[in-house]
Design a protein that fits this description.
The protein is an alpha/beta fold. Helix content is 39%, strand content 15%. The chain has 2 domains: 9-257, Type I PLP-dependent aspartate aminotransferase-like (Major domain) (Aspartate Aminotransferase, domain 2), CATH 3.40.640.10; 261-392, Aspartate Aminotransferase, domain 1. The strands form 2 sheets. The protein has a 7-stranded mixed sheet, sandwiched between helices. A 5-stranded mixed sheet has the order 8-9-12-11-10. Strand 4 (150-156), helix 7 and strand 5 form a beta-alpha-beta unit. Helix 11 (260-280) packs parallel to helix 15. It binds ligand LCS. Residues 87-89, 113, 116, 156, 160, 185, 187, 207, 209, 219, 221, 337-339, 353 line the site of ligand LCS.
């Protein structure tokens, strides 16, 4: 049966990434757990290696299970193709390694995931890469920071953990005018809630570890490219640098992907209720959630995102000490880093996910000592709220 031309999102997610098995008719994508692929002849081997003929060669270069995952996510993001990586950080580094070099400049969101920022400051800088991490919610500041040698603008929107947004369309226009490419880390949103390529971005990054896999049991990453030309620039770097995804890992993510829409919308429904609870609670001083009218970029969230997602950050009246007590006393939420799984996680950015960022830099990007980050999961909202309430007491 032909699928209708504009299937709904649940249909698209259910059917994305099905690798046809003509031999046995397997409905689930098979795991091609092999490191290498047999050539039928020496000539065929030579043709494949030269690129004259399509076909798998060696799993670091490509594998049918991994390729199925790449085409599934690329389709959902509206890309021309994708490269799967061993982790989200391997995806970030694939972009850095491909598009940065000595004498080039990168502008990034200041409240990036800690490692995405630190590796530029500590390591790429050793190879002559110049950088500025700025508040990308301010396009004028971005415009002022762009230089003739800016090769890459790297946005995280919403940013981890401040939930500040960057206007992707506006930032992309400014970056392109200055001759820079734009990469957007879309991990917090999943392709369901935001598709940066539709706003002109050149590349999208995902830590598949989060919403796309969604089961807190796999590390993985991906870069999705707007066009083939950029993809083909990154492919040799992907092959030679070795951060490929394993086929079994890809299969697990494909398995998780099947339920992505159910999980993402359920967690978002929960988060909306929890954010309202926190905002009206006298023990909480500030709540950062793009679904609240009090979010400074509420209007932008409405136009750029299909939903506010399920990440919430907040500060307690009692500061860090109160936050630590809260984290020690919850029982429905689990005290752990990471996000995007079916279960609610709570953590303290200043001492955990962003501990690598020096305190002054952290504070200037809005990551205060008292900030608590809640990654809302798929439990019943009233149970998460009751748990937070008892812990706040
Ligand atoms: N990008 C974002 C926005 C992230 O939040 C993370 C990890 C990464 C990239 C890196 O992905 P990974 O290599 O871990 O797959 N974020 C984490 C966090 O907030 N808590 O623990 C990890």
């Amino acid at each position: 049966m032909e699928m209708k031309s504009n299937p709904g999102i649940h249909t698209r997610v259910t059917h994305a990434g099905t690798c046809p098995d003509s031999e046995h008719g397997s409905v689930a994508t098979p795991i091609y757990q092999t490191s290498t692929f047999k050539f039928q002849s020496a000539e065929e081997g030579a043709r494949r290696i030269s690129g004259e003929e399509n076909g798998f060669i060696y799993s670091r270069l490509g594998n049918p299970t991994t390729a199925t995952l790449e085409s599934a996510i690329s389709e959902l993001e509206g890309g021309a193709g994708a490269l799967a990586t061993a982790s989200g950080m391997a995806a970030v580094n694939l972009i850095y390694l491909t598009f940065l070099g000595s004498g080039m400049h990168i502008v990034g969101t200041d409240a990036l995931y800690g490692s995405s920022r630190r590796i530029i400051e500590l390591d790429y800088s050793r190879f002559g890469v110049d950088y500025d991490f700025i508040d990308t919610s301010d396009p004028e500041l971005l415009e002022k920071t762009l230089k003739p040698n800016t090769a890459l603008v790297y946005l995280e929107s919403p940013a981890n953990p401040t939930l500040k947004l960057a206007d992707i369309r506006h930032c992309t226009e400014l970056a392109h005018r200055a001759g820079a490419l734009v990469a957007v880390d879309n991990t917090f949103m999943s392709p369901l809630l935001q598709r940066p390529l539709e706003f002109g971005a050149d590349m999208v990054i995902h830590s598949l570890t989060k919403y796309i896999n969604g089961h807190t049991d796999v590390i993985g990453g991906m870069v999705i490219f707007r066009d083939e030309q950029i993809l083909e620039q990154a492919r040799p770097v992907h092959v030679h640098s070795g951060g490929c995804m394993d086929p079994h890992q890809a299969w697990l993510v494909l398995r998780g992907l099947k339920t992505m829409a159910l999980r993402v919308y359920k967690a978002q429904d929960n988060a909306r209720q929890i954010a309202e609870f926190l905002e009206t609670d006298g023990r909480v001083s500030r709540v950062f959630y793009p679904g609240l009218k009090s979010h400074p970029q509420y209007e932008l969230a409405q136009s750029q995102m299909e939903g506010p997602g399920s990440m919430i950050s907040f500060e307690l009246n009692g500061g860090l000490e109160a936050g630590q007590k809260l984290m020690d006393r919850v029982s429905v939420a689990t005290l752990a880093v990471s996000l995007g799984g079916y279960e609610t996680l709570i953590q303290h950015p200043a001492s955990m996910t962003h501990a690598a960022v020096p305190r002054e830099e952290r504070l200037s990007s809005g990551i205060t000592d008292g900030l608590v980050r809640l990654a809302v999961g798929c439990e019943d909202a009233e149970d998460i709220i009751a748990d937070l309430d008892q812990a706040l007491r």
